[in-house]
Amino acid sequence: MGHRKIIQSFVSFGFMAVLAAWASDNEPAEVLSGERSESAASKWGNYNGEPVTKWNADGRTMTLLTELRYTDPQGFVWIAPIGSVVDGASIPRYLWSIMGGPFEGKYRNASVLHDVAYGQHNRPWQDCDRMFYYAMRCSGVSVVEAKSMFYALYKFGHHWKFPIKRAKPVKFEGQLVARAEQIPRAIPVNPEQINEARDWIRSADPSLDQIEQRADAEAW
After folding, report:
1. Among 8, 98, 130, 139, which is disulfide-ready with 106 (CB 3.0 to 4.6 Å)?
2. Three-state DSSP class for 107?
């Protein structure tokens, strides 16, 4: 009887040892949170600084009290300098309902940078919208929401013809046009199109180029 118990104990111990070895072989290696954050930041760019703002007397705009810098995945540095006035106007108001407000939660940094970039007109609007996408991803916004916002901005945003500063007006389509002239938006925000695009993005996971192609095809 004693020998049987010893054998049973030995078998049980051996079985548990095999399970432990299998679990250790199949258990993913532990990744330190700092390393994971650094990897994500390098993929989507990285921030330098935190935006500190104060509400202005008009109750609609805010002034930036600290500088915010963002380096995008291509290495270009976007700067929202101290004293910048932001109000979320670079993002169509309907989209605020998707975001929960342009300066709330994970959208805050990207919205501040996008507002400043749209106000300066120093870069093509296409670059500004792509920066907004990358900055959202860097802040932890999900790929579906970030790409949906990118689609909506590309299609319904307030764009301009000549994003690069020029000393004099230039000739465009037979007439002189001032630099960075605003393009009137003939297409109002269409919630149904945004919802359809979001469903497509969720199922197909398109690239940014493919999203632009879809928006262009729908616009004409």
Report:
1. 139
2. helix
- Please name the residue that has the structure tokens 């002189």: 176
Give SS3 for 215.
helix
The token duo for 94 is 């309907």
Where exactly are the structural domains of the chain?
Answer: 39-219
Q: Are 85 and 56 in contact (CB under 8 A)?
A: yes
**Two tokens at 5?**
């118990």
Q: Mean pLDDT in runs of 10 for the chain (220 residues)?
A: 44 35 33 36 87 90 95 96 90 70 81 93 92 96 94 86 50 50 58 92 97 84
For tokens 């104990």, name the residue. Answer: 9
Q: How far apart are CA 62 and CA 112, in angstroms?
A: 10
CA 103 – CA 111 distance, rounded (Å):
6
CA-closest candidate to residue 88, choices 122, 48, 53: 53
Evaluate whether 155 touches 193 at the Cβ level (below 8 Å).
yes
Determine the Cα–Cα distance for residues 104 and 129; give it in Å rounded to an integer.
19
Burial class of residue 120 (count of CB atoms within 10 Å of its CB; 0-12, 13-18, 19+):
middle
Q: How many CB atoms lie within 10 A of CB 87?
A: 15
